[in-house]
Amino acid sequence: MKTNKKIKAIIFDVGGVLALGHYASKPQRNHRQTKVHEYMSKKLKIPVDQYFDSLDTNYALSIEGKVSRLKVVKSISKNLSISPSKLVKLFYKAYKKNFKQNKQLFKQAFKLKKQGYKIGILSDQWHLSYEALMPEKLYNNFDKIVVSCNDNIKMRKPNPKIYKLILKKLKVKPGESLFIDNQNWNIIPAKKLKMKTILFKSNKQLFNEKKWKELF
Description:
Blueprint: E1 9-12, E2 19-21, H1 32-44, H2 48-63, H3 69-80, H4 84-98, E3 99-101, H5 103-114, E4 118-123, H6 127-133, H7 136-139, E5 144-147, H8 160-170, E6 177-181, H9 184-192, E7 196-199, H10 203-208, H11 210-213
Parallel strand pairs: 1-4, 1-6, 4-5, 6-7
Antiparallel strand pairs: 2-3
Helix pairs in contact: 1-2, 1-4, 2-3, 3-4, 4-6
């Protein structure tokens, strides 16, 4: 069983890393959530600004698990004057249309697990993006998962505490981990904690990174 002696765990982001935008040749450089919101406003036949107003503060609180799924869905559906069930279905369609699972990277991640590495998830999601983008059949193969909207988390990146939490769950020291994220502002706190990091831009770029190659 081959492993890099210094690295014991690889930690992946989801949006922009394990879930990529359908619509862009360079998905990592685009804001996928923006495309989702544009899709929603178009389907609802309302201006984007009006749509964003309808999300109110509960959407942001949902990302940190500070409101329940029920509350955020009821709040937004009320503001948009549509049923909660219709809202959920519409968001699911929006995420499915604008994201695709990064099958190539999943394959590599599970290969690393077979080699003896621990693999984990550290991701900011709100309740509906979590359900749409993180199907259990794919993600239950990861050793540990920390998602911001879960009730027991109540924080999001770049809060250093959430990085420490995934490290604790994986039972590794910062220097024994490799964190992969597509946003530099999420990479910065990881570096400050002395975690190894790779700023994800594309599969090709990642697989050519020295830190990644050394894992194999």
